[in-house]
């Protein structure tokens, strides 16, 4: 490492990490800086499309962006940063295989993002699945379709009922969109079963507060509840999951029932790996940042996104930017520009973005949206949802593939094949070996 070529270490390959490195790649290719991105995964997942991937509206491979292909000129390390010693400008990396090693840097971008915020609920870790990456989306799709197969082949009424009961915990974007999209897919799939009707399924959304989708406002949140209930889907507000041991769901209102499928989407928290750094953190475990995205008190450390407490300059109450993709992408673009300004000895600029609104899909041709204060429902909102998110998917390659998926869906029926056996590829071989 030489002083003439600053080494920029980007910790994390999600929204902030990928977009920041993407903004730095040209300078890296010119030899002005060196950029290293470290992430346990070799792809960036565009999470807003996970519900559509789970429902089969988008090919799962098209909602992930390969880091090495996209970040030409940057070095990509597949591994996990286990600690950061910024005083000595060294990060410890745990690769997929082999011993840990130290990686020195001149400037660092902390983009570790968030993880699922779980609670000590009995059975949650063993029975539930999350909904933050494409593997979970594919597994959930396969499980829903697999449960339909089980129910169709199961004479026991109790087992059949449990197989056709699907519970989502959390009424934010991930929970509501996943809940609605998968029910829409499963409802369509029942036409291929002679002994399963849509009304045989039970879909339950559990939300601890008194509203869902708070980002779209109370009016559209109430509208969403009404639309879901019209589809015979249960929305339990001001209700908590108390236990789910061995698939036995116990709710705070006293009801108990069996469910084979339980999905946890009840919020996120800053990556706990930040606790193994010497960076300043707030009471929520987020990195303290200035409005220019520098970490407080440090000239050579930066952060943004879910793991950062960035002041919202458009707020009059001293609030921080919300942990969502809209802020993360824009912060990352400014972050890359600010790093290059710092390298050139210029002053970085402050981040200021007024939240433009939110869009949410409720299944095929159904949605809600609030943009610049304008409320939209139904098909127009669903169209806005798709238009907005395809515009935000990184790279033209991915945009084209997603649009092609949607175009083909206009001419061909929805694909409802389960590939659940892919999760246990050696099962048939084991049976043959043990027979």
UniProtKB/TrEMBL annotation:
SUPFAM superfamilies, sorted: FAD/NAD(P)-binding domain (SSF51905)
Chain ranges passing through the membrane: 6-24
Designated name of the protein: FAD-dependent pyridine nucleotide-disulphide oxidoreductase
Protein family membership: Belongs to the NADH dehydrogenase family.
Highest taxon, organism lineage: Bacteria
Organism: Kribbella flavida (strain DSM 17836 / JCM 10339 / NBRC 14399)
Keyword Transmembrane: yes
GO MF terms held by the record: NADH dehydrogenase activity
Domain FAD/NAD(P)-binding residue range list: 7-319
Keywords (A to Z) from UniProt: FAD, Flavoprotein, Membrane, NAD, Oxidoreductase, Transmembrane, Transmembrane helix
């Amino acid at each position: 490492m030489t002083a003439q070529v600053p080494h920029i270490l980007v910790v994390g390959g999600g929204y902030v990490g990928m977009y920041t490195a993407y903004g730095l790649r040209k300078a890296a290719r010119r030899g002005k800086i060196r950029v290293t991105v470290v992430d346990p995964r070799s792809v960036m997942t565009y999470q807003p499309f996970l519900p559509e991937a789970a429902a089969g509206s988008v090919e799962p491979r098209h909602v992930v962006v390969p880091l090495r292909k996209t970040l030409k000129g940057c070095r990509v390390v597949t591994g996990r940063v286990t600690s950061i010693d910024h005083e000595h400008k060294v990060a410890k990396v745990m690769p997929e295989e082999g011993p840990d090693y130290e990686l020195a840097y001149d400037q660092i971008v902390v983009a570790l993002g968030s993880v699922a915020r779980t609670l000590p609920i009995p059975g949650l870790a063993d029975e539930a699945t999350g909904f933050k990456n494409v593997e979970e989306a594919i597994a959930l799709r396969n499980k829903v379709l697999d449960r339909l197969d089980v129910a169709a082949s199961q004479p026991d009424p109790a087992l059949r009922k449990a197989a056709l009961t699907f519970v989502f915990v959390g009424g934010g974007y991930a929970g509501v969109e996943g809940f609605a999209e998968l029910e829409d897919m499963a409802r369509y799939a029942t036409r291929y079963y002679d002994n399963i009707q849509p009304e045989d399924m039970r879909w339950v959304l559990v939300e601890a507060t008194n509203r869902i989708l708070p980002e779209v406002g109370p009016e559209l949140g109430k509208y969403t509840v009404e639309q879901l209930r019209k589809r015979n889907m249960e929305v339990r507000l001001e209700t908590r999951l108390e236990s789910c041991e061995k698939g036995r769901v116990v709710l705070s209102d006293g009801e108990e029932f069996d469910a084979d499928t339980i999905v946890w989407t009840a919020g996120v928290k800053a990556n706990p790996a930040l606790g193994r750094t010497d960076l300043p953190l707030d009471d929520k475990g987020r990195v303290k940042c200035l409005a220019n995205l520098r970490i407080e008190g440090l000239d050579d450390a930066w952060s943004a996104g879910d793991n950062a407490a960035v002041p919202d300059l458009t707020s009059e109450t001293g609030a921080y930017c919300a942990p969502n993709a809209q802020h993360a992408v824009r912060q990352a673009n400014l972050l890359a520009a600010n790093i290059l300004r710092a390298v050139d000895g210029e002053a970085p600029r402050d981040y200021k973005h007024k939240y433009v609104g939110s869009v949410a899909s409720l299944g095929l041709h159904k949605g809600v949206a609030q943009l610049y204060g304008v409320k939209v429902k139904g098909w127009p909102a669903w169209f806005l949802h798709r238009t907005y998110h395809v515009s935000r998917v990184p790279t033209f390659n991915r945009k084209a593939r997603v649009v092609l998926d949607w175009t083909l869906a206009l001419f061909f029926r929805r694909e409802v094949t389960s590939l659940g056996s892919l999760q246990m590829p050696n099962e048939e071989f084991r049976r043959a070996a043990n027979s």
